[in-house]
Amino acid sequence: MRPPPSPARSTEDIMTRSIVRFLNVAGLARRGPAVGAARGRRASAPAGAWLIALALSGCASAPRETPWVAPPRVSWEDLTPSPVPVVRDGYRILDEAPSRGRFPCAMSVSRMASEVLDADQDGPLVVPATPHNEFLIWNNLFDNLPAVSEAFPVVERNLGERPADAALVLSAARAFHAGVSMIYAVNAVAQDRYEMLGVLHDANTGQPIAVLHAEGERAPRPEDYETTYNNVDAWDYEARALARRKFKKLAVACLRDLIANDVPQKTQVPEGWVPDRPLAPVHWPPRYFHP
């Protein structure tokens, strides 16, 4: 009579037998009868086999994620020498009274950043000139605003190798004949959220005239992003790019309001322009006199 079939072995039994068989071959198992010599006898593994099994199972587990640490942030006080109100996701013009003769003018743009990368350290502020293509954002942003004649950067090399602060940046902007100066910063609020804050100044007086703030959160990418990567613009989903896009729109809208609230300065007629005697009438056809 055929003996009944042996019950199916569990996954743990199979793993244990495999490890013990490996130890027998390597000569690490304790001496005794060969493993599996008698049918139906459960293999006994030494303590070392269980340690190896635990090590192997630990290697297969997912790596532990490193907690996100926020980098140093640039505050509103770092962007202006005068106190300003805080605004969120919008802009605010600080002086509602009409300005006189502010536009047309040139505009300077500067980005303030922290020199250190550790959040628990305090370091000096800098006005970096990198990335080099960042200024292209502002170079053509105001093309549709004729009252802004040009936009140019004020960076580290314009400060005479001195520590950057808002008053020094405004002094350099005034030396380059800018009428309006914008100092802004980019901060990482969370792992998937960025913010941009900026202050518009009257470069001649050094006083803030408007504040701007924009925040962007990383958007979920399409499910087929990995397979159609070439057809997907990453700047449509990254938090920093989304914050920058909102900030650009706010900057244009804010400048439009400032220009509309400006009274052009009247041009005075220079002295000596009005003659003190009547002008001689113009003869037509002209008469030529020959000596």
Topology:
Blueprint: H1 11-26, H2 47-59, E1 90-93, E2 99-100, E3 105-111, E4 113-114, E5 125-126, H3 135-139, E6 148-153, H4 166-175, E7 180-190, E8 193-202, E9 207-217, H5 239-260, E10 262-263
Parallel strand pairs: 2-10, 3-6, 3-7
Antiparallel strand pairs: 1-9, 4-5, 7-8, 8-9
Helix pairs in contact: 1-2
| Largest sheet properties | 6 strands, mixed
CATH topology (level 3) name of the largest domain? Rossmann fold
Write the CATH architecture name of the largest domain.
3-Layer(aba) Sandwich
CATH class value of the largest domain:
Alpha Beta
Tell me, what's the shape?
elongated
Give the end-to-end Cα distance, rounded to a whole number of Å: 151 Å
Range of helix content: 10-25%
| Largest sheet, spatial ordering of strands | 1-9-8-7-3-6
C-alpha-based Rg, rounded: 37 Å
In terms of structural class, how would the helical and strand content be classed? alpha/beta
Q: Using DSSP, what is the number of strands?
A: 10
